[in-house]
Amino acid sequence: MSCWPPTARAGDRARALKPADPGRLISAAATRLVLDRPFLGALALRLPVRPGGAWCRSVGTDGRAFYYNPAYVARLSVGEVEAALAHEALHCALGHFARRGHRERHRWDVACDFAVNALLVAEGMRLPPDAIHLPEYAGMSAEEIYPLIDENPESEPHDQHLFEGEGPANGDGGESGDGAARRPPPLASEERELLAEQWRQRAAGAAQQALQAGRMSREMARLVDRLLVGRMPWRALLARFVSFTGREDFDYHRPSRREGDAIRPGLRSARVELAVAVDTSGSISPTELEEFVAEIDALKGQVSARVTLLACDAALHADAPWRFEPWETMRMPAWAGGGGTSFVPVFEFLEREDAPPDALVYFTDADGVFPARAPGYPVLWLVKGRAGVPFGERIQLG
Q1: Which of left, alpha, beta for 167 (phi over 0: left; psi -120 to 50: alpha)?
Q2: 108 and 37 housed in the same domain
Q3: Together in a domain, 158 and 296
C-alpha cells in the first residue's frame, strides 16, 4: 500500500548488490525479513512481486500483490526494501483496505500509515526520512489514530492506494503495449471481504509458526490478538499473554568493572511473578470466577508462575492477598463482594510490594474507577461487557 521516497543508509550490505538488479534486491530483502522477523516475512511471501508501469512511483499493493518501480527499488538498500515489504504486508494483514467504512479516505490513509510505521519502529526497523511517524501513536490502531488527526491533514501517506482506484487507471490489468504492467483494477466489494478473511487466516498461521519458534515480538502478538478478537477463545488469548510473560529468554547486562566492559547475555529467572485480580462487585457470577481461577491454575504450572491473587470491589478484600506457588493448586477463596468498583486499590497494593509483578491479569466488567496512570508492568484486562480500558491489553469475554 505504501510508497515512500528512497533514502541512503550507510553501512547496509545492500550496497554490495548492483543498483540495476531490483529483482535480486527484493529477493535478498525478503530472505532477510524471513530470517530476522519470521512473522513479517511469512506475510510478505504471500504477496507476489510484480513490476509496475508508469503509474507506480515506488512500491504499493492492492492486497493481491506487491508492485514496484524498478528504478526506485534499484536506489534502495536491502534494509529499506525489507521495510517496504513489511510495510505493504502489514497493510494487508491489518485489512486496511476493508476497514475504512465511511471515514474520509485521505485522513484514513494517513492514520493507516501512522499505525503501520509505529509497528515497524517497534520492531527495530529504520524508516525512510520522509515516512510519517509519531511516537505517541505507538500501539494504536488506525481507528484509534483517525480521530486524533486533523480533518484535512497536511501529511501525505506516501502511498499509492490501489484498493479503490486512485487516479486514472491504465486498464484492467495485464501488460500495456510498451511491456509495462497496467494498473490493477480496484477491489470489488466481494473480493474485498474475501481478501480480508484470507489475510486474517494468513496472519493467524504466520503467528502460530513464529510463536512456536519463539521468534515473535510482544507487539506483533498483540497485533494478531486484535485481529482475532471475537474469533479466538479468550482462554487461548490469555494463554498467549501468560506465555509471553513467562518465556525464558536472554537479556543483556553490563557486568561489574572487575569483569571488564563486555555486555554479556544472561538467562532471566525461570519463575514468573503473576498478579491476578478479580472484580467482586457482583457483575461477574461465582461460576465465571471459578472458571477464571481454574484457567489461571492450569496456566501457572506451564510457565512456572507464582500467583498473587487479589479480590476487590470498591476496596481490597480484608484477607487478600492469597499466594500460590507454581506447584500448588489454586482454590477460589470464599469472598463476599458487592457495591461499587474501583481498580485503584489493586494497583496501589502492587505498588507497595517489594517488587512489581511481571504482569497483572484483571477479570472485570471494566465499569469502575481506574488509576490515573498506567503501571510499569504489562496489564491484561479480561472484560465481560463492552466497557473500555485506559491502558493495557483488553480481551473481550462473551
Answers
A1: left
A2: yes
A3: no
Of 150, 172, 202, the one marking the end of a domain is 202
Render pLDDT for 68-119 as a digit per residue (tens, 0 to 9). Answer: 989 888 988 888 889 999 999 999 999 888 888 888 888 988 899 899 989 9
Query: Partners of 39 in the beta sheet?
Result: none
CA distance 300 to 242: 8
What's the CATH number where 371 sits? 3.40.50.410
Take residue 296 and report the three cell numbers written for it: 489461571
Q: Which residues contact 275 (CB under 8 A, 6 or more apart)?
A: 307, 308, 310, 346, 350, 357, 359, 360, 361
* DSSP 8-state assignment for residue 164: T
66's enclosing H/E stretch is strand 66-68
Q: Provide the sign of the torsion angle of the four alpha carbons 62, 66, 71, 75, taken in this order.
A: positive
Tally the domains of the chain. Answer: 2
Exposed (0-12), middle (13-18) or buried (19+): which is 335, by Cβ within 10 Å? middle
Examine the fold and report which residue of 202, 232, 267 is the final residue of a domain before the chain moves on: 202
Same domain, 51 and 196: yes
164 within 8 A of 63, measured Cβ to Cβ:
no
Are 195 and 251 found together in one domain? no
Each residue of 306-353: pLDDT tens digit?
999 999 989 999 889 999 998 998 887 877 666 678 999 999 999 999
Give the 3-state secondary structure of residue 198: helix
**Residue 91: what pLDDT?**
92
Q: Buried b vs exposed e over 176-204: b needs ≥16 C-beta within 10 Å?
A: eeeebbbbbebbeeebbeebbeebbebbe
